[in-house]
Amino acid sequence: MRVAIAGAGAVGRSIAGELLENGHEVLLIDKAPTAISVERVPQAEWLLADACEITSLDEAALQRCNVVIAATGDDKVNLVVSLLAKTEYGVPRVVARVNNPKNEWLFNESWGVDVAVSTPRLMSALVEEAVSVGDLVRLLRFSHGDANLVELTLPEESALAGTQVGDVEWPQDTSLVTIIRGTRVLTPSRDDSLEPGDELLFVAAQAREQQLEDLLSVRRDIG
């Protein structure tokens, strides 16, 4: 897979290093000469250019990329790069870094963004996830379809504790994608049971999040 990363700062270089280790082809783009540190990520291609300029993106052959990551420290730049990547070059997957959570609402399909990653929000979510049981925590927002990756740790008092996955009437527009049980990562099947302490990861429409939380967290009266 070929990936272009706009922004060769600490974030961009770290992403590049991870992708290269996983066998992907990476191009780092930055307009600041001081950011071009080939020796730090020698396996990557480097381009000294302004990623907001069409001529620069032509030189980068962005149309050959499977993914573009807008990872600069400037939200305006990340939005422009995302829009150009999607509309001018038809890049299938565009991921954008959100630096200021107040700008998060802009990072959607209108600006060509498939996935928006807000570092402050993600850090906050991970803190919440570590201390919250029975509360739905939003980990990641997907622009297309208004869907989110959400997590809930099943509490002891949940009505669904001990219930098989296939017997649960899940809310519409939600999908249980992973069960984390201790050190194990389980791909849910209909016969798997839900156990107290399970970390459940869902892709869910935002409008269904409260319904999902109510279903998992509340022990309903019987009779």
Automatic annotation (TrEMBL):
Keywords: Ion transport, NAD, Potassium, Potassium transport, Transport. Signal peptide: none annotated. PROSITE patterns: RCK_C, RCK_N. Residues 137-218 form the RCK C-terminal domain. The keyword Ion transport applies. InterPro entries: K_uptake_TrkA, NAD(P)-bd_dom_sf, RCK_C, RCK_C_sf, RCK_N, Trk_Ktr_HKT_K-transport. Residues 1-117 form the RCK N-terminal domain. This is Trk system potassium uptake protein TrkA. It comes from Streptomyces actuosus.
